[in-house]
Amino acid sequence: MRFRVVVALLYVVAAWALNTVLVKLVFTQISPLAFMALRFVVMPPLALVLLRVAGERLAIERRDVPLLVACGACGYGVYQYFWMLGLAHTTAFASALLGSLAPVFTLILLALAKVERIRGIRWVGAAIALLGVAMFEGAFAGRATVRLGDALTLAAALIFAGYNVLSARLLSRYSPLCLVTITLWIGAAMIVPGGLWAIVHTPYANLTWQVWAIFTYAVLFPILLTYPVWTWAIGKAGAARVSLFSYLVPVIAGLLSIPLLGATIAPYEIAGSLVCICGMIVATALSRFSIAEWWASRTLGIER
User: Fold this and answer.
1) CA angle, 6 as apex, 5 and 12 as ends, to 5°?
2) What's the pTM value of the predicted model, to 2 decimals?
3) Which pairs count as long-range contacts for 68-72, CB under 8 Å and 24+ apart, including other chains?
4) What tens digit of pLDDT does each residue of 157-188 get?
5) Is residue 304 part of a domain?
6) Per-residue pLDDT tens digits for 14-53
């Protein structure tokens, strides 16, 4: 993998991790619903401008409307409610870690929909990742709890997995930037009405410049200035290799949350997160490895 591709990917995962920590920080001054709704007032028009600058044309085929609506809901409209409210009720580290389970949930949905045959090693990886989540939640440390924020974040990861599955059916007819633009507008139509009350009743005069700086960052970086870079990197290095970098997000978020949020991370949470990340790597990086084929090769001489 070329150096510039590595640098680009490190920029993306660092931007995503920092966004989780900064958004958590801003909730001390503005409600999650107001912050979320305001973002989706601004982001869709900016995406449209970016599409025009890129020289792409926005065209929607009528047959794709139901699928696009479902993508808009899973990628933004419904997903953001669960993710944002989940982050408000858990730590930035937990949010980043549990949110990273979306690829594992994607495997499960693909298998249930019989879209793709999932090799045994990927199920092993998924099981290890879920074991890591149980460890992270204190199941083996005598501190098992069911935190509302963690449950909401897990639900958000499952919903976003639906976006991964559905959007794959559209990328043959829409560019990544075009698909992001369309689904952002659909998501905004679901989010902004639900956040209108919060927008109207927010005491804007009391908000500090830090809130607006974080808002600007949250509008530009998590999607508009990172998704195109991520897609470019996939074109250069392949999806399998690029996806490994996403597992740096919870690590970076955890490290950043200590100085920025004053967070403390328990030893069992560190152990659980490492097991979870290892499981996710197994589920994605070893996708071409077959346990059955490996065992057959090992026992071939014995059977003869």
Assistant:
1) 90
2) 0.82
3) 68/170, 68/182, 68/183, 68/186, 69/186, 70/162, 70/166, 71/163, 71/166, 71/167, 71/170, 71/179, 71/183, 71/186, 72/182, 72/183, 72/184, 72/185, 72/186, 72/187, 72/189, 72/190
4) 899 888 878 887 887 888 888 988 999 999 99
5) no
6) 999 999 999 999 998 999 999 999 999 999 999 999 899 9
Q: Which domain holds residue 1?
A: 1-30+207-264
Q: Looking at this protein, which amino acid is placed at residue 290?
A: S
| DSSP character string of 96-118 | HHHHTTHHHHHHHHHHHTTSSPP
Q: Is 10 within a domain?
A: yes
Closest CA to 15 of 268, 256, 210, 198: 256
* CA-wise closest residue to 250 among 76, 92, 69, 51: 92
- The band of 86, judged by pLDDT with boundaries at 50, 70 and 90, is very high
Total domains in the fold of the chain? 1
Tell me if residue 162 falls in helix, strand or coil: helix
Q: Is 79 helix (H, G, I), strand (E, B) or coil?
A: helix
